[in-house]
């Protein structure tokens, strides 16, 4: 509640209409890389339960916040990342601040095909697990396409090239 009032004061909005009138410019401002980074980092803190002294986000909260914060400029790898988090609930208790912050860098450095990923880099171990999981998922998907292709055409897609 306190943060809401401070935020309204910071944008000079004293009513719902005032907030609504400032919203388009706030969205434009959030597209600036440095402003987005500030918003992104704030989002982690916002998601913590301060009364419980939480230091990491519950997995479900982190997923919801990633969907929210990337509403405008969704990284190509986001859907796969969220799918990974949803499919592996027992292995992922929570998302630490370090993992949260590094994910933004991860989305900027690693291409959608994960070709820029290197295990030698200092990424959180959860990213290593994600990349391994995603590469395996893609391999299975390709094998399924190959089997389906061989049933209908007699050749796997790989054999055709």
TrEMBL record:
Residue ranges annotated for the DCUN1 domain, each copy included: 1-135
Pfam families: Cullin_binding (PF03556)
Top-level taxon of the source organism: Eukaryota
GO molecular function: cullin family protein binding; ubiquitin conjugating enzyme binding; ubiquitin-like protein binding
GO cellular component: plasma membrane; ubiquitin ligase complex
Name of the featured protein: DCN1-like protein
GO terms of biological process kind: positive regulation of protein neddylation; protein neddylation
Organism: Todus mexicanus
């Amino acid at each position: 509640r306190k943060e809401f009032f401070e935020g309204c004061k910071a944008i000079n909005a004293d009513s719902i209409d005032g907030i609504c009138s400032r919203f388009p410019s706030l969205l434009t401002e959030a597209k600036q890389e440095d402003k987005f980074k500030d918003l992104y980092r704030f989002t982690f803190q916002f998601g913590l339960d301060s009364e419980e002294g939480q230091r990491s986000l519950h997995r479900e909260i982190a997923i919801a916040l990633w969907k929210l914060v990337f509403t405008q400029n969704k990284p190509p790898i986001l859907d796969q990342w969220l799918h990974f988090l949803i499919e592996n609930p027992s292995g992922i208790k929570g998302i630490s601040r370090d993992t949260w912050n590094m994910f933004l860098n991860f989305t900027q450095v690693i291409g959608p095909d994960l070709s820029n990923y290197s295990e030698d880099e200092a990424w959180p171990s959860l990213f290593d697990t994600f990349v391994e999981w995603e590469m395996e998922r893609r391999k299975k998907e390709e094998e399924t396409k190959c089997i389906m292709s061989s049933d209908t055409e007699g050749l796997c897609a790989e054999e055709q090239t």
